[in-house]
Amino acid sequence: MVTAMPRIPRTQPKPGLPDRQAILDFIATQKTSVGKREIAKAFGLHAQDKIALKSLLKEMMEAGELEAGPGRNLHKGGGLPRVTVIRVADIVDGTAIAVPDRWEHASPPPRLRVIESRKRAAYALGDRLLARIEEQGGGQLAFPMKALAKSEEFVLGILRKEAMGWRLVPVDKKARTDLAINDPGDGQPGDLVLAEPSGRPPRQYGRVVEVLGDPFQPKSFSLIAIHAKGIPHRFDESTLEEADRMARQPLGEREDLRHLPFLTIDPADARDHDDAVWAAPDADNPGHFRAIVAIADVSFYVRPGTALDRSARSRGNSVYFPDRVVPMLPEILSAHVCSLVEHEDRAVLACHLSIDPDGTLLSWRFTRAVIRCVTNIAYEEAQATMDTGEGPWLTVLQPLWDAWGALAKARAAREPLELELPEKRVVLDEAGRIAGISVREHLTAHRVIEDYMIAANVASAKALEKKKAGCIFRCHEVPSREKLVALRDYLETLGQNMALGQVAKPAVFNRILSRAKAGEAYEQVTEQVLRTQTQAYYSPNNVGHFGLALGSYAHFTSPIRRYADLVVHRSLVAAHRLGDGALHKEEEKGLTKTADHISMTERRAMEAERDTIDRYVAAYLSKMVGEVVKTRITGVAKFGFFATVEGLGGDGLVPVSTLGAERFVFDEDARILEGIETGTRYAVGQRLELRLAEANPITGALRYELPEGGSSGGGGFRRDRARPKGFTPRPGKSRVPPGVRRGRK
Fold first, then answer.
1. What is the pTM of this model?
2. Which of 235, 233, 239 is nearest to 303 (CA)?
3. Which range (9-13, 229-233, 311-315, 341-345) has the least confidence?
4. 1.20.1300, 2.40.50, 2.60.120, 2.115.10: which CATH number matches 83-148?
5. Is the pLDDT of residue 647 over 50?
6. Pick from 110, 419, 597, 635: CA 20 to 30 A from residue 380's CA?
């Protein structure tokens, strides 16, 4: 039995009062938000009429003819406000199609064509926008007013149930307050959730929009970083369908290099193989070598302007976590069709190199080719084969090592920056829990592959420069004078001199590191030299690569995981007329915006990876809270110092307020906290034992304290004790009087 809905009485229009259709027609024709005031003004209503209008509008809302949006603005029932938040849900023929971010009706949400400005880059799937909505030709258009960043719109945290109601404890260690929750949705106490805040402090509330699960499960650590940094991690159906379709296309006409024994050398836990190498002596020129660096031909599968391309550009790069990878491309491409697996025909863009005995690149050319790798081996296996002179792939590896001997000469001649930075590897058990953290051993095999990749990257950059074609260069600028002065001041505290009159070259820093290597201050000198360097970035304007001591450098060798390399491939295809997938003219005009975007996504990925490692380390250390551990100071500030567990990592703070009753002052030049009375010092690089006071796996935060609660307990080192080598005070530097902070010279 169907019960009829009660009939809502319809108010008869009074003299001067517009009828319902007139009100609906008026709202439909306005380009801005409409409320009761705008309607009264438009129809010239007086005081008594306004009272009747209010009743009429209320009836229309109860009947579903009108709805109220933000700010009590009115719009047609079942429709959209004039200004609302939308989300890009599809890309059709290069046009973004959006749906309302919130839609509470039984009918499907309307699809809105987004009218994009020519002044900004194209919108990507998942982008949220504040937009003005207009009806046109039976459809609706969305004119973006403001892009809404996910990090600004959502808060990630742990849901709590308290006597006063629901609260969200943010996982961001920088957050200072909890968020009151008025709608927990399906969330339960203790769940890791994503909440959308509304209002302004102190009257700010949030509603749970997604439940992510148990925050203490190891798999949640990377998930926290993914959501906190707004990293796209799901492919929409159109992208997956396109990837599947492109993966099935034939390879087409290509140079056949399947007779050459290409191989890949990667980490043992590599998830894809995008570069293969081959080398041999040049039979026509004794002492010379021929080499081919074959890179997965991603541009053949990911064409400009497609859903695949927009998705890849939005991501900018793959992001690698201990428990998962967020790939730039769908798995059917990244792990299968584009991965240069052994014994399978694979499409590549081949860089043919001619190398003289001193490692100079005499010539290069690029072709589209097909190869069939004979094997995929790990660095450790390749190194063991060359060390023992035994193994099934010795005859393939030996020519590679011989040609690398020439490339190594060229590297030594240009003297690139030689920073020894340990790379940590998180080892997980079968349950996904951290089993240990190890430092990856740096082998000669790593240097061999690295130098082949550098050679191909240089050839790519120079080839495009010669053709005057668009290119995204990998840029690393000379350190600023301010940073050089700061490094000089620091080195003076260690008794080292650094002349600023000379031209800054990587070799200058190499000599500084070499002098420090024999002393106990080597690690802190290495850290200070690293801090002196500028951050590398992408740009269509070439400024050279300071760290590698190269005038022209581009990324060519990893198009599966970096969008910059894909753009370089497309430009090479266009410049050398190699067929489909070439860089379009419109795409070339937008290289500056593309370079800025992928520079940002690279920084985003690095931060997410680092934060995830911090969470794993904190989880690993959480069972050691209260214990004394061996640490090394990694940073000093006026509010305290940071320390890391030796051989493990995980920076934690020791607040100056916990160092005892003595007052400490901060020497900015030497990066030292010094006690006024005893002269006890805490300096970068210093090793000491600390008690682990707190380890929070959710935020990754650690906190240490002195084992005996203050400087008198011997946590630092004293001026009247035997001081570690490298901490001799500078001549003429007296003890700092109370309340005075040393400044930079």
1. 0.74
2. 239
3. 9-13
4. 2.40.50
5. yes
6. 419
